[in-house]
Amino acid sequence: MSNVFIIRADENISFNYVSELIKDHKHVQIIMKGDESKALELLRFLTELYPSKSITLIIER
Amino acid sequence: MTSFDVIITSDRTMMSNHHGKEFLGFAATGPPIFMPEWFWMWLAAPKMKVDKLGRPWQAPYGLRKIEAALQDSGINAAIIDPDHIKKYLNDAKVLAIGHHDYFALGPPSSEWWVLTGKEPINARSFRKFMEKPEIRKAKEHGLKIIVGGPAAWQWLWKPELVKNWGIDTIVEGESEKIIVKLVEKALNGEKLPKYIHVGVDEVPSLEEIPLIKHASVNGLIEIMRGCPRGCKFCSVTLKPLRFYTLDMIERELQVNVREGVKGCILHSDDVLLYGADGIKPKPEPLIKLHELAKKYCNSLGWSHFSLSAVKYAEDNYKLITKIAEIALNENNYGGVEVGIETGSPVLARKIMPAKAAPYKTDEWPNIVKDAFGILHDARIVPAGTLIIGMPGETPDDIMKTIELVDDLKDYRSLIVPMYFVPMGVLKNNEWYKARPTEEQLELMKACLRHDLRWIDDLAKWYMKNTNIITKVMLKILISLIRKTASRYNLFERMHVAEAKEELIVKA
Question: Is the pLDDT of residue B29 over 80?
Fold first, then answer.
């Protein structure tokens, strides 16, 4: 997969900020530290907003 | 002893052929009524015949695709019946699970949950499956669990279960292309992503879609993917259109026939758009498709038609009559699911602006009536779904839908209201305690009246070749529903105009 836009974040990151950052990218990888349920909530938000994008979430401990 | 690196499976409500009657599978989306849970389970989802290794005779088509993708890549994977996974979990490295409705959050399960206040059996059965001691034990020894399928999105609403059950990766979307890399990572002990959302650029091309290697439930096979209509409540519309070639379809038909499955269900979100010119059905590809399928199958059914395509195909080419002649045996009916969704052109314009195409959305109620008439004459029984509770729906929209249901009373069919649960509501753990409005309840009653009008005729046809116990139990169930409906005066028909007036006064 080419041109993957990678974001490193922690659980305090603003959902709107992430959505703004990824809006022009088709393939996104989010590497997130901290609370897993918060990360899944972020993914709920992003996939509803951008149902056509490829998004991968990696949890870092 | 035989072992598998990857076990692909699901719970019993998925791993069943529902007595060879696909429609009976819908009973698994409800809670048990008038009978104990174990009996309801048997009625909706009896155990599947397995071979000596515990591999099911028939398995869900989606799981068969994953099995094929992994086996084509040389990975030692197999679908195993949920009752037989124990003997493999000590050696397996990956457990891959798929489901249509893991937690009963999708329609119609969510609707039965709201109406009865009881958790449907699909969710109960899945929870029991996940809490099997052998899975917990294997997890402690390093088993990786990957979940996917059409209900993968539901895991995002259940973070506590993702944690408690040790789900390693959730895959949402068409996964044939990415599953191999993901499983290879798991087999190599590499770190797995928690969640993968397969975007439109990553869906497999036609050439990348593997063909099933073993029989699918009730002979269901896919003929195309995607839908161009763009309805707001449907995710299929985001996928690019891909038509299987007749050669691909024939090879999957041969797999099912070879393994003893005599019937066939042609699956797509609109079978009539196979080989179509945009949203206009074309005779040649459809006739060739049906002739091919009939060559291999005793009985032939369809998963979905769109009603505007039914009207267009018949009005222009007499095509519904022709395909019914090819598909249906003498004196028999065929079944298909169709989306009515609403009887209100105003709501239709908001939520499904292209559903009526090539006709105008304002004509939607007439398109539905015409299409039901065409299907009735062709001996095809539509199971029509309605969506109630869509954002923006007004009492007037519901009244229009009640009028439409009333207009359909003379057409042999079932009409099923689907209660739309907005995603945001799912945040609340007690979401199912939400009550339908009076107008929505009135519509549900109208559907029940319609269905009870036709149910005896349909049950006689549908249950013709099933075992005696199922036949008797369904007869008793229908009679109990009829009695209950009678006790609560559900047959007392209010004149539509009066009902409208009364509801407006209440509003």
Answer: yes
State the average pLDDT for chain B.
90
Q: Which two tokens stand for residue B58?
A: 């028939």
The answer to whether B199 contacts chain A (CB < 8 Å) is yes
**CA–CA separation, B9 and A16 (whole Å):** 37
**Residue carrying the six token digits 């099923």:** B416
d(CA B506, CA B501): 9
Domain annotation covers residue B208:
no
Contacts of B423 in chain A (CB under 8 A): 44, 48
What is the ipTM score, two decimals? 0.93
* Number of domains observed in the structure of chain B: 2
Tell whether the model's pLDDT for residue B507 goes beyond 50.
Answer: no
Q: Residue B474 belongs to what domain range?
A: 215-506
Give the whole-angstrom CA distance, residue B211 versus residue B254: 11
Residue B298 in contact with residue B19, Cβ under 8 Å?
no
The predicted model scores a pTM of: 0.91
CA B201 to chain A, closest CA, distance in angstroms equals 7
Residues B46 and B179 grouped into a single domain: yes
Chain A: which residues have CB within 8 Å of chain B? 1, 26-27, 36-37, 39-41, 43-44, 47-48, 51-59
Domain-terminating residue out of B167, B202, B237: B202
Same domain, B82 and B220: no
